[in-house]
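Review the following:
>
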Amino acid sequence: MAIWGGQAPTVDALIAKGKHDQAIALLEEQRKKTPKNVRVRLQLCDVLVTANRAKQAVPILLSLVDELAADGFFPKAIAVLKRVQRIDPLQGGVEERLADFCKDETGEAAARRTGVLPTIQSPSQPDEPNEVPNQRIETIPDMDLEVTPTPPDQSPLFSDFSRDELVEVIRGLELLSFEPGDIVISEGEPGESLLVISSGSVKAFVKNAEGKNSQVREMKAGEFFGEISLLSGKPRTATVTASSPCDLLELDRDTLDDIAKRYPHVRKVVQEFYNRRSGSESEVQARSG
């Protein structure tokens, strides 16, 4: 590795200069030193994709999906899966495995924690590099963690679905990314989707009696919002902004309607959360303050 001005170049500096092969080599070194560091593995995969070496990124990401799901970071696992599918849209079968982890129907989550679980394998790929034009380098925020048996950020929404329902919901989710200060949804605008926080955090505000924004709550990974407008057809009841870099998983109305035709219980689950949270005490207090 070349030394510039007596100092080793950073990954960011190498990427900025288009030296992707050197950046990959440096990230591989970091990966060997901290094999469980999520951020390093994600950045390595991003640079591999940018360098038209996407086929090398897929198995790394699929293994990470496996780890995150087994250790209880289920929304994060879905977000990584969605990145895999951006690289390889034909990548299938992983939704079922994720649902099994969530419902713990296969017993693999326990096996994973004891270190005897085989990871997801990528299907055989051609020798030619995968061309992914105009691929933007992305990293998942709030993911520079060592995957350990910490309390999971399991979403209460996902836990109420059956295994088959969950597979369909995972397939229907879209990945969205936001930077700090970005407006995710605005109070008063039409609401067409529900959003689950995969990583990072957001803050929800409502207008009080003086017309000023008053914070209702802060939400973190695993929590979700937007179901009130999604089901009622009424405008958004709050403004939500990103308080850190964050990834959100979006389920829109058309997708929900399509899933509910085959699995009516999915709509019932969302409806139950709507009934529970519509006109919540915290929101009423904020509006009257």
